[in-house]
Protein backbone atom coordinates (compact mmCIF):
# COMPACT_ATOMS: atom_id res chain seq x y z
CA UNK A 1 0.00 0.00 0.00
CA UNK A 2 1.30 3.44 -0.90
CA UNK A 3 1.37 6.42 1.48
CA UNK A 4 -1.62 8.26 -0.10
CA UNK A 5 -3.77 5.15 0.27
CA UNK A 6 -2.74 4.75 3.90
CA UNK A 7 -3.55 8.40 4.63
CA UNK A 8 -6.92 8.11 2.91
CA UNK A 9 -7.87 4.99 4.84
CA UNK A 10 -6.73 6.43 8.17
CA UNK A 11 -8.71 9.62 7.49
CA UNK A 12 -11.82 7.61 6.68
CA UNK A 13 -11.30 5.51 9.82
CA UNK A 14 -11.08 8.66 11.95
CA UNK A 15 -14.29 10.06 10.44
CA UNK A 16 -16.17 6.78 10.93
CA UNK A 17 -14.84 6.48 14.49
CA UNK A 18 -15.87 10.05 15.31
CA UNK A 19 -19.38 9.61 13.95
CA UNK A 20 -19.72 6.29 15.81
CA UNK A 21 -18.57 7.90 19.06
CA UNK A 22 -21.03 10.75 18.58
CA UNK A 23 -23.92 8.36 17.93
CA UNK A 24 -22.98 6.20 20.93
CA UNK A 25 -22.88 9.27 23.18
CA UNK A 26 -26.26 10.47 21.95
CA UNK A 27 -27.89 7.06 22.36
CA UNK A 28 -26.48 6.43 25.84
CA UNK A 29 -27.52 9.82 27.20
CA UNK A 30 -29.78 9.42 30.20
CA UNK A 31 -32.50 11.81 31.33
CA UNK A 32 -30.74 12.49 34.62
CA UNK A 33 -27.48 13.63 32.98
CA UNK A 34 -26.78 17.22 32.09
CA UNK A 35 -25.75 17.83 28.53
CA UNK A 36 -22.64 19.89 27.86
CA UNK A 37 -21.19 20.71 24.51
CA UNK A 38 -19.08 23.02 22.51
CA UNK A 39 -17.06 23.40 19.39
CA UNK A 40 -13.78 24.47 17.93
CA UNK A 41 -13.27 26.66 14.89
CA UNK A 42 -9.72 26.59 13.61
CA UNK A 43 -8.76 29.51 11.39
CA UNK A 44 -5.21 29.02 10.23
CA UNK A 45 -3.16 28.10 13.29
CA UNK A 46 -5.54 29.85 15.72
CA UNK A 47 -8.21 27.76 17.49
CA UNK A 48 -11.42 29.53 18.55
CA UNK A 49 -13.23 27.57 21.27
CA UNK A 50 -16.81 27.91 22.47
CA UNK A 51 -18.79 25.79 24.88
CA UNK A 52 -21.71 25.58 27.26
CA UNK A 53 -19.54 25.32 30.37
CA UNK A 54 -16.04 26.09 31.61
CA UNK A 55 -15.20 22.37 31.77
CA UNK A 56 -16.26 21.67 28.19
CA UNK A 57 -14.39 24.74 26.92
CA UNK A 58 -11.20 23.76 28.76
CA UNK A 59 -11.25 20.22 27.34
CA UNK A 60 -11.89 21.52 23.84
CA UNK A 61 -9.11 24.09 24.16
CA UNK A 62 -6.60 21.42 25.17
CA UNK A 63 -7.69 19.22 22.24
CA UNK A 64 -7.55 22.13 19.80
CA UNK A 65 -4.04 23.12 20.85
CA UNK A 66 -2.88 19.51 20.65
CA UNK A 67 -4.34 19.04 17.17
CA UNK A 68 -2.89 22.36 15.99
CA UNK A 69 0.58 21.33 17.19
CA UNK A 70 0.26 17.95 15.46
CA UNK A 71 -0.75 19.61 12.18
CA UNK A 72 2.09 22.14 12.39
CA UNK A 73 4.63 19.40 13.20
CA UNK A 74 3.37 17.31 10.28
CA UNK A 75 3.60 20.29 7.96
CA UNK A 76 7.15 21.10 9.07
CA UNK A 77 8.32 17.47 8.84
CA UNK A 78 6.80 17.09 5.37
CA UNK A 79 8.67 20.14 4.08
CA UNK A 80 12.08 19.27 5.52
CA UNK A 81 13.13 17.13 2.56
Written account of the structure:
The chain has 81 residues and is an alpha+beta fold. It has two domains: 1-35; 36-81. Helix content is 62%, strand content 15%. The chain is built from two helices and two strands, in the order αββα. The protein has helices at residues 3-27, 54-78, and strands spanning 38-43, 46-51. The protein has a two-stranded antiparallel ribbon. A hairpin with a 2-residue loop joins strand 1 and strand 2. The protein starts with a helix and ends with a helix. 0% of the residues are buried.
How are the SSEs ordered, and which strands pair?
Blueprint: H1 3-27, E1 38-43, E2 46-51, H2 54-78
Number of domains: 2
Give the SSE order as H and E letters.
HEEH
Strand content: 5-15%
- Which value, in Å, is the CA radius of gyration? 16 Å
Contiguous runs where pLDDT drops below 50 for at least 5 residues: none
Count of DSSP-assigned helices: 2
* Assembly form of the protein: single chain
The helix fraction, in percent, is: 55-70%
The largest sheet, given as strand count, sense and whether it forms a barrel, is: 2 strands, antiparallel
The average pLDDT score comes to 84
Shape descriptor: flat
Structural class: alpha+beta
Q: Count every beta strand, where a strand is a DSSP E run of 2 or more residues.
A: 2
Strand order of the largest sheet: 1-2
Amino acid sequence: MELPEILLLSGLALVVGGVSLLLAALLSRGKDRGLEGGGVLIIGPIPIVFGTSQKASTILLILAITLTLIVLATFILANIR
